[in-house]
Amino acid sequence: xxxxxxxxxxxxxxxxxxxxxxxxxxxxxxYEFIQGNMFSSIxxxxxxxxxxxxxxxxxxxxxxxxxxxxxxxxxxxxLDRFSTKKIIVSAMVLCIAGTxxxxxxxxxxxxxxxxxxxxxxxxxxxxxxxxxxxxxxxxHRMALVTGLIxxxxxxxxxxxxxxxxxxxxxxxxxxxxxYDALLGIAFLLVIMRYVKDYPAGQEAIELQHKKNLANxxxxxxxxxxxxxxxNLLAAVYTSVMNxxxxxxxxxxxxLYLQQAEGMNREAAALAITVLFVxxxxxxxxxxxxSDKLGKRKLPMFVGTIFSFxxxxxILYLPIQSxxxxxxxxxxxxxxxxxxxISYPLVAENSPLSLTATAVSVVSILTMSGYVFYQNxxxxxxxxxxDKVIQNGIPLYTKSxxxxxxxxxxxxxxxxxxxxxxxxxxxxxxRDGNA
Length: 434
Prior knowledge:
Layout: H1 4-13, H2 16-37, H3 39-50, H4 54-79, H5 84-104, H6 108-122, H7 125-136, H8 142-159, H9 162-171, H10 173-194, H11 203-216, H12 218-226, H13 229-241, H14 243-261, H15 265-293, H16 297-316, H17 322-336, H18 342-348, H19 355-383, E1 389-390, E2 393-394, H20 398-405, H21 407-421
Antiparallel strand pairs: 1-2
């Protein structure tokens, strides 16, 4: 027999309201992906303005993810216990303030602090969306919904590429980031108007979830989330599958294509934009395929294998056609989007009352990956650099980039092993996880 909760959520999830609520909240995720990925477009301007090289650029980019990781742990716990809407509003105010101050910062260390503050708020963006989706949708629709939410985020990543490059060429990077802060204010108003914590009449169910958490005990709830082997395997998978976005999309992709492949700035930005387009389309399509197939592991296997092949082609094929570059970056984004399946898989392996805390395991390792991968990448990039600087910007060779980007296919091999070790959920919550 279907539970009362299941019937109520099923009824609401067929309505427009459920989509309006979740996608209004996803605007926060969209906005944060602009903040997290803009460095691929503004890296040259940042290095010139602050007189820094790739290593300090890596620190400035990754400090956002350091604060994100530090606050993801309490974020999951807070979101399982307090009003999601109030938390989203508070976190987004912090992000907007950090973005505005970063735009006017003239000192490198002040800029670091501003990025750190922005990262604090962003710790709540994806977890809040998943928390809302788990209340408004049934489990068999979660991969599709999660894929669409990630699609919103990747659209933000796309906006941070060609559109941001065009804007900074018109008004300069500082004014471009100020306009970005104003966009955040507009999104905040939409969120305040349309986001609701849960469907009407579900107050008693939410109260029961809070009682379940209280009865479970704080440390027991943490053990069930953070020491669940399946959650950890899925988290490692997502982290390494996200490596191309963390390194190519978020920080150095545009500069890599300009210096190693001879593209102009606009062409390079468009290629990185196409990476996000691939993820935008891949997330919901792969998620929907997983839901309809009733399996999680097979789509994850397929995504991993084809991501590996595509990355090797990008690194080592003698590519002469710009159209082929666009196709390969699209395919890389599309196949790595199989990472979205980890989120419903983790939710299915965890109690419903612990959804945000459990999903935070994936987010913590994924965001930690940004910090780790970006700094390892810049270390490898500079390890054989011949110290040439041109127009105030360090000039790296194709072999420098190939060495550094070689970490990505190695990551895909790790992802393949993680999928082998995962247990298939068949898109259903395990017994006792209702």
